[in-house]
Amino acid sequence: xxxxxxxxxxxxxxxxxxxxxxxxxxxxxxTKVASEIGCATGWQEIIARSExxxxxxxxxxxxxxxxxxxAGG
Length: 73
Description:
Blueprint: E1 2-12, E2 27-33, H1 36-41, H2 44-48, E3 60-70
Antiparallel strand pairs: 1-2, 1-3
């Protein structure tokens, strides 16, 4: 079964949005989701319950990516 990997990048406000990627992010969170829609909606609760939530909007911002994954290979 195929699925998707939701990647949430947390980047400092000083990092331009175009440059926000895994190498420049201060934190990277990943979770498996069933669909592309899950990439857009599946991570909010994770962020809300994490310690990083305090800085979001003040000193950091979020950027999400969606990657297709294949089971078994």
